[in-house]
Amino acid sequence: MDPLRIAEMLAPFLQLPPGPPAALDGAQLEQVSAYLDLLLRWNARINLTAVRDPESIVTRHFGESFFAARQVLKKQEAAGSGQEAGVGSQERAIDLGSGAGFPGLPLKIFAPGLALTLIESSQKKAVFLKEAVRTLALTGVDVFAGRAEDFAAAADLVTLRAVERYERALGAAARLVAPGGRLALLIGSPQAARTPQLLAGFGWQAPVAIPQSSARVLLVGTKPIG
């Protein structure tokens, strides 16, 4: 897909506060285009997403993921210049139940300095994720082909989106958050309403409505220290 068309469709997801509007540069848009092409080819062989239309994939999957990136990843200034650099470069992130790579890989595209682990128990999907990392020439990305319960490390940011057995996955995600770190959930409004009771120890922000969606929100909670 033409990168300019991708930029046009992603704009509503990147322009909401806090802070000034964000945008992807030419190289990032080329990565999104290459990722989309790879996803479409693989999706013809294995079920990575039920969404088949390319433009719907851009808005539903990429848009939602970049919206989360815009909200939860910090911007940093390059030393001695006015240019943005290393967005989120001091953070380590885990994307649990990554599936086709959302939101993890768009977070990495948005924040090239982010140290990212994708956790995916499906071997076929894990193979796709490794191929996506190779195709996009991403560094600092690991794919863990296994269950979250078997992953020992923790991260400053843990993301969770569109998983089955939500309550079980939520508990696994909470365990992976380092003290003082954040859990970012891309979920439906009914799940968001229940989550503060399911993880009462976290400090929860108000849910933020995802653009172009009637019922999906971003919910971010902070794990207490100590």
How would you portray this structure in words?
The chain has 226 residues and is an alpha/beta fold. The protein has 7 helices and 10 strands. It has helices at residues 3-14, 26-43, 54-72, 104-110, 123-135, 166-176, 189-198; strands at 76-77, 84-85, 92-96, 115-119, 141-144, 155-161, 177-188, 203-204, 208-209, 216-222. The strands form 2 sheets. Strands 3, 4, 5, 6, 7, 8, 9 and 10 form an 8-stranded mixed β-sheet that branches. It starts with a helix and ends with a strand. The model is unreliable at 75-89 (pLDDT under 50).
Quickly describe the structure.
With 226 residues, the protein is of the alpha/beta class.
Characteristics:
single chain; 226 residues; alpha/beta; eight-stranded mixed beta sheet; two-stranded antiparallel ribbon; 40% helix
